[in-house]
Amino acid sequence: MATDAGNWNTMADRFRTGGWPCSYPTEVDRLLVAAGATKIDIVSHSMGGLTSR
Question: Which member of 7, 19, 24, 44 lies 3.0 to 4.6 Å from 52 by CB, making a disulfide possible if both were Cys?
Fold first, then answer.
């Protein structure tokens, strides 16, 4: 199971390099405001579960 910080740090570096946001709370807040919503659903695929934790 990928629960150690080293795994997340490796993936976060790869996402940053690829231009993806790595601050999910900030991104979620931005999306909530943009959509005028009170909650969002995060859907991930395969190893995407690692990125959404």
Answer: 44
| Residue 4 CB neighbour total at 10 angstroms | 8
Q: What's the length of the chain?
A: 53
d(CA 21, CA 23): 6
Which three-class secondary structure state does DSSP give residue 24? Answer: helix
Rounded to the nearest 5°, which phi and psi values hold at 51? -75, -20
| CB contact at 8 A, 43 and 51 | no
Q: Smallest Cα–Cα separation from 40: which of 50, 49, 29?
A: 29
On average, the pLDDT of the chain sits at: 76
